[in-house]
Known about the structure:
- The chain has 277 residues and is of the alpha+beta class.
- The protein has helices at residues 54-57, 162-165, 192-198, 227-236, 242-249, 255-268, and strands spanning 2-7, 18-19, 22-23, 30-31, 37-38, 45-51, 60-69, 72-82, 85-90, 102-104, 107-108, 114-115, 118-126, 129-135, 144-150, 153-161.
- A six-stranded antiparallel beta sheet has the order 1-16-15-14-13-12.
- β14 (129-135) and β15 (144-150) form a beta hairpin.
- α5 (242-249) packs across α6.
- The radius of gyration is 18 Å and the shape is globular.
- The chain starts with a strand and ends in a 9-residue tail after the last helix.
Amino acid sequence: KKHGLLLRLCLSLGLATFAHGADGGGDPHFTTWKNEHYEYHGQCDLVMMSDPKFADDLGLDIHIRTNIVRYWSYIKSVGIRIGNDILEIEGTLDEDDAEPHYWINYEYQGDLDDIAGFTVTQELPSVYKRQYKIDLSPKYPDQYILVQLFKEFVRVQFHGGEEVFGNTVGLLGEYSTGKTFARDGSTVMNDFVELGDEWQVIPSEPKLFHEITRPQFPQKCIQPEDPRGERRRRLAESVISIDQAEAACAQLKDPLDIKDCVYDILATQDLDMVGAF
């Protein structure tokens, strides 16, 4: 069975409770393989996905680097390792910056035709947007990884079935069940602050970013102060109203996208955030 997994990695806007088949309060940040949603606010490098057996033992590692802004956080950059190649991608705060910001094997804007033999293509729909598609077809026909950028925000989509991602571990949980396991592979973690901390990148794992930023293990991930209380206060002071945000997001079809869109606009106070969807 094929799963289309969408990771909503633009923002982390409130700590969600969790229930099977539903998101439980607060916007979803991560979507597991079973379409269950949770959030993690910490700032650090995190293991999104890892599978040493990927593509006949080439191996796959995907790490994300998060950044806190007031009471919410976003994915600043993503690092992807396949085989001996490493691709790092990030967005930009500069509205006039149309340059691609990527590193291939730590070389800024190096030749980027493929990663470990998997073709990489870039598209630039607008100055705010860019996307990178890693085509996994040489090994997995019609399957791919898509990294989308909107301004400084990173979003990742995985399009593939069990043969591609069935053995992965990390923040996305177990493929077959969606259970969010600790590193030991048996302890189910439903406290998602603890889960995020559990999957902080550790020294034995590959370094996928061209520069080291704090915190690095054993320093703990940085948590925002009182995210719910600060969020309520900030929303009360918002210039953009809920009605304005809902009107801007009404063009979207997916109810989950609409919910994410509304909260992203309210958090950033930027109506253009609808463009991230």
